[in-house]
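Researcher: We're teaching a course module on how sequence relates to structure. For the next exercise, students receive a sequence and then see the predicted structure as C-alpha cells, so they can try to spot secondary structure elements on their own. Here is the exercise chain.
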Amino acid sequence: MSTAILTGPPVPGSPLEGELRALGFGVRVVTEPSQTPSALASVPAGERVALVDSRFVGHTHSLRLALTDPRFPAAAVPGAVTAQPEARPALAHALDTAVRGAAPAVPGAPLAPAAHPLRQPMPAEGGAPGTEVLPPTDTGDPLPDRLAGLLDADGTAVHRPDLGSLVAAVPASPQQRNEARQSVEAVDEEAVRLRSAVKARDGFFTTHFISPYSRYIARWCARRGLTPNQVTTASLLTALIAAACAATGTRPGYVAAGVLLLASFVLDCTDGQLARYSLQYSTLGAWLDATFDRAKEYAYYAGLALGAARGGDDVWALALGAMVLQTCRHVIDFSFNEANHDAAANTSPTAALSGKLDSVGWTVWLRRMIVLPIGERWAMIAVLTACTTPRVTFVVLLIGCGLAACYTTAGRLLRSVTRRATRTDRAAQALADLADSGPLARGLARVLRPLGRALPRVAVPLLALLGAAAVTASAAFTSYGSAWPVLGAAVYTLFSALAVSRPLKGALDWLVPPFLRAAEYGTILLLAARGDTHGALPAAFGLVAAVAYHHYDTVYRIRGGTGAPPRWLTQAIAGHEGRTLLVALLAAVLGGSGFATALTALAVLVALVVLFESIRFWVSAGAPAVHDEGEPA
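Model: And here is the predicted structure for the students to work with:
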C-alpha cells in the first residue's frame, strides 16, 4: 500500500483525491505545515509515500509518472514528490528542514522543460473577496517542490519525468486554476500515454509495422489486468510453438512457423509497451524480457535444424554458426558500451559525424536497418522460413548478420582509436567480468601480472586475438582427434590470462571479451563439425546455448548494477579457458560417439548449474529493473 499526504486544505471540486486513490494511494490530508512531519512518520517505513500540494492541477498520467514508477527511489513533478522506502529518511530530513526551519530552504532544482507556463510552480497570490482562496506556502514555492530541491541538495537523486505536453501545475489564484484546467482539457492524455509506451529508439520494421497497433494491444492487456511478465511468457510460448512447427519439416509447418514467429515478436513488443503504459517495471520482468528473446531465437534455430534433418538436410553447423555469430555480436555491443559507459572527455570525431548523420532523417532509418536489429532479423527469418528452406534461411541470416557485424564493429573501432577518453575502474571491472575467466586464467594472470603491466596497451587485445586464433586454427586445420587442439587451447589459456593480467582500460580493450567468446564458441563448433559423429553438433548447440545464457546473465547483472555472478559459479563451470581446454581434451581422448555423449553431459551440467543460480538470483535479489524508456510525451 502507498500513502499520499495532501498538504493544505482540500480545494472544493478538485478531483485530486480520487485520482490519487485510482493510482493506488491511500490519502491523508494535513491542513497545517506543522502537522506534515507527524503524518509522514505515521506511514509505515516499508511503504512508498507521496506529498502532494492540495492545489495541484494536472493530468493523472503526470502523477502516475512521478508517483508510481518503481525504478526511482525519489521522483517529483511540480506540486508532488514521492519517496520509496530507501529514500524515506532523506525525505523526512528534508521535511524537517523545510517545516521546522532546521536550515534555510533551498529553492527547487530545475524541473523538466514544459511548453506551457502553467506546468511550472507559480508565485502565490490572494484571491478576490468572495472567491476561492488557495493557501499560500511560506516561500511562494509549494512544499513538495521545496522538498524535491532539498533532496537534491542533500545528495538524493530526484527523478523528474519529461512531461512533454502533459500538465502539472500548482496555480495560486482562481484565474490561474481555470487556465490550468483548460490546459488539461486541451491535451488528449490517453494519446500521450499510448505514444509514450513506445520506445524512443527502435528499428524501422518495429516502428512502422509493429508499434502502430501493438500499443493498442498493450492497452487492452492493461485494462484486463494482464502483467508484462504474462505477456512475455506468452511470447516465449508462441515462439516455442513456432519452433515446433518448423521442426515438422513440412511446407505448412514452415509457413505456420513464420507466422507464429512474427506473432511472438508482436507480443515481445507488447510486453515492454505494457510495462511503460502502466509503469509495471520489475526486476523479474527485466530478467525475463532480456533472456527470453535469446531463448526464443535460438530455440527457433534448433527447430529449423530439426525440420531440415527430417528432410535429409543437416544444417546443425549453420544453426550453431548463426547462434555463435549473433551472440558474439551482442558481446561486442555490451563490451563497447560498458567500456565507454562513464568514459570522460569523449572527443571522437566519428561520434560527431554520427550525430550529424542523425540530423538527416533517412540516414537514421538506413543505419538502424543495416545493423539488422531484432525486428528486421525476425521478419527476415519468418519470411525466409515460409518461402524457402532452412539452409537458405541460415545462409542469408549468416551473411546479413556478418555484414551487420562488420559495419558496427568498424564504426566502434574508429570511435575507439579517435576518442580521447579516460576509462574508469568501473569500466575495467565490467570488461574483466565479461571476460569470464576461470581458475586457470585467474591463477596465471596473477603470476603474469608483472609481465602484463610491462606490455604496451595495444598488446592486450592482440594477445586475446592471437590466443583465439591459435585454438580455432588448431581445431580447424589439424587432424581430428589429435593433440594439436589441446596444445592450441593451452596457448589460448596462457594468452588470455596475460590479456586480463592488467586493468582493461585501453582504447581497444573492449575487444577482449568478444575475442574470448569467439574462441570458445568457435572451437566447440569446429570440433563438433569435424567429428562427423551423429549427435555431436546438436550437443554442441546445447552446450553453446547454455554457456551463452551464462554470458547474457552476466551482462544483465552488470547492467543492473549488481556486478558479475558469484565467483563459485565461474569456478564450477571452469571459465571460458577451462571449458575450451576440456572440450579439446574430450575430442582428443574420446572421439566418435563418446565425444557426442560427453558434450551432451557437459551441456546438461552447465545448463543446470547456470540456470539454478540465475533463477535464484533474479527471483530473490533486489536488483534494479533494466528497461528502455518510452518516447517522451
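Model: If you want an answer key for the exercise: The radius of gyration is 28 Å. Residues 316 and 359 are 43 Å apart (CA to CA).
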